[in-house]
Design brief:
Layout (H helix, E strand, L loop, with lengths): L2 H10 L7 H27 L2 H15 L13 H17 L1 H12 L11 H34 L9 H18 L2 H10 L5 H6 L1 H15 L5 H36 L2
Helix pairs in contact: 2-4, 2-5, 3-4, 3-6, 4-7, 5-6, 6-7, 8-11, 10-11
């Protein structure tokens, strides 16, 4: 099917029309289901909160002197810590459901052919979100704490559980979100909102926006951690553009082959 034929098919297909109140009601429903999924994930992970916390503490214990441990100052710090780690794990566990709710919200504005991307969107969205969290835990965070502890090597570290886990969870969740960028770019290109040529033409603006986002997400003001967030995101941006261009080229070749 040529571009003009595809445009005619789209124009002949009636999209469902919703009022503002219907959009708000749909948004409320999707947010509610997402919250239920996250709460369910939190309750499942709560039983393993201590083990999750111990797993997340491994990077700091690799660099601290032997025998030193994280400390807490308030009576409720340990309890709040377990709540936070179980909630974060619950978010990652509920990611497919949350992405499904996102898709259900935007699907009424898509054409029938475009709605067929639901499964790839949920699968790859979850894959990249989890991949971002793993990159944060295994690569970005260990590098960050080694750099920061080395900067403070003239002093004796007394690291509290509150500050350590807040720093770690911030990085894991932030990079998980930023790793969604290629998925967003790919599907925006597939539904015709943007094109690979447009994205590359405005690459400099994209880099600027990525650095601004990285500065917001980065829990510390140093340049090293800023680059840990920004550089992988730029690579992911190019990956998303490349994937969109590759699939678009295949579609063009197929359309040419189908012509008599």
């Amino acid at each position: 099917m040529s571009e003009s034929e595809r445009a005619d098919a789209k124009s002949s297909e009636d999209l469902p029309r919703m009022s503002l109140m219907e959009h708000l009601e749909e948004l409320r429903k999707r947010i509610l289901w997402s919250i239920i999924a996250v709460v369910a994930g939190f309750l499942l992970c709560w039983a393993f909160a201590k083990q999750i916390a111990e797993f997340l503490a491994r990077p700091i214990y690799r660099v601290l002197p032997e025998g030193e441990r994280l400390i807490f100052l308030g009576l409720t710090d340990a309890f709040i810590l377990y709540v936070k780690v179980a909630l974060l794990a619950g978010v990652f566990l509920a990611a497919p459901v949350v992405l499904y709710q996102v898709w259900r919200f935007v699907a009424p504005g898509l054409y029938q052919r475009e709605r067929g991307y639901a499964v790839p969107f949920i699968f790859f969205g979850t894959l990249f979100f989890v991949g971002g969290g793993m990159f944060a835990y295994f690569v970005a965070f260990p590098f960050a704490i080694e750099f920061l502890l080395q900067m403070g090597s003239a002093f004796e570290p007394q690291i509290t559980v509150d500050r350590y886990y807040r720093f770690l969870l911030y990085i894991i969740f932030g990079l998980g979100l930023m790793f969604e960028l290629p998925i967003v770019i790919f599907f925006l290109a597939r539904v015709g909102v943007v094109t690979p040529r447009f994205l590359m033409r405005h690459f400099r603006w994209a880099v600027l926006i990525i650095f601004v986002m990285a500065a917001v997400v980065t829990p510390t003001p140093d340049v090293v951690n800023l680059l840990l967030f920004a550089m992988p995101t730029i690579v992911l941006y190019l990956l998303g553009v490349g994937a969109a261009a590759l699939v678009g080229r295949r579609d063009t070749i197929r359309n040419v082959d189908r012509k008599p």
